[in-house]
Amino acid sequence: MRAIVQRVLSASVEVEGRVVSEIGPGLLVLVGIRDSDADSDADYICRKVLNMRLFPNEKTGKAWDQSVMQRQFGVLLVSQFTLYGILKGNKPDFHVAMPPQEAKPFYACLVEKFRKAYTADLVKDGIFGAMMKVNLVNDGPVTMQLDSSAAQDSSQPRSAACELVEETE
User: Where is the composition biased (Low complexity) (predicted)?
Assistant: First the structure.
């Protein structure tokens, strides 16, 4: 799984001339799902995005000190299969991306993971498969790329589906 994480002052997603999601300060996260991604990839991306220290601490003035959760800022997730595009000559090929019929429930599960791990009301998303206009005011600019496959131990067995772990009380 690949995520392009941008620190923003604001971001929104528009579909067919209508704003479907928006956040104020926080993180815009473009998410590409690879055909071989598993639950562990979704867990990794969720954990890393929510804990990345991309924000300054306003009390101490220390840069790169606080996460989106510490600041209680928004997270806007946008599915983007083109993150796994490979040029063949001058034409993009997306065979490495997970097929849409598999990627849609996987992406929905990822969004739910973010909502369960953080504050549900602060996690927004676009519309999977729609032609979206993504608007943002980049802050910095700060843009980071995360790849779950680079962090995963290939000797670990990978379950194929994204699974939500139910919390027990």
Answer: 148-161
